[in-house]
Amino acid sequence: MTPGLHHYLIVSALLFSLGLLGVVARRNLFVIFMGLELMLNASNLALVAFSRYHNNLNGQVMVFFVITVAAAEVAVGLALLVALYRKRQTAHVEDLTSLKL
Amino acid sequence: MPQFTDLFFYALAGLTLLFGFLTVLNPLSRSPVTSAMFLVLTILCMAGLFVLLHAFFLAAVQILVYAGAVMVVFLFVIMLLDLKADQRRHFNKIAVGLGGLSTLAIAGTLVASIVKTIPVSQTAGRLAEGETKALGRLLFESHILPFEILSVLLLVAMVGAILITKKDLR
Q1: Does B123 map to a domain?
Q2: Given this model, what pLDDT does residue B5 score?
């Protein structure tokens, strides 16, 4: 069966769900971060597939912007992780309960 | 030869999902370094899918920026911080079970809505100009303002990252 738009969208939806699983089920902050990256990538795949099958390059421009913003987000997020590790010596969400009442 | 590229799609899609799964829930290793390596493989397979969608420039950017720059920063920070104590912890069984269940529900909803709404006989159109040339034209003609704002965003992120990781944050 020749792959069409819905094949790509299903791959993208499954990849998004995998990223969500990483964010929900894992407790390591790095793996949670990687789950976020996976979700961003899944949305990129959906945008490129739409752009190809609707013959409109605006989707690819959007993906270009998303990749750049994701790179900026990773830089700031990892800087926050380094600052957190310096204060608490942990990268585990179960140890970060100081906002708990 | 249409059958050949079809085969490529199924192989790349399967590998992407497999490596994605091994990134988030690897049964053999809980080390974030292993997860990062599998994320690199996932991103490489996704670049292959971009090539199949004729987005050659984005495939190159995906490999250069994601598999190159972003993942190097990830691995650098993971190895900078000594995370040996975290590796001995086990998966939270309740979290994995409930998270898996809710994720499965969301995935089912998404796939069902895609199958219901997207017509099966959707064919890809032909673009007249070279794809990368057309993309550059679009980027620098009608999207020039967001492009410039993005460069300011990158500068802000760079300065912010340096400021946050400074030792004596007053």
Answers
A1: no
A2: 82
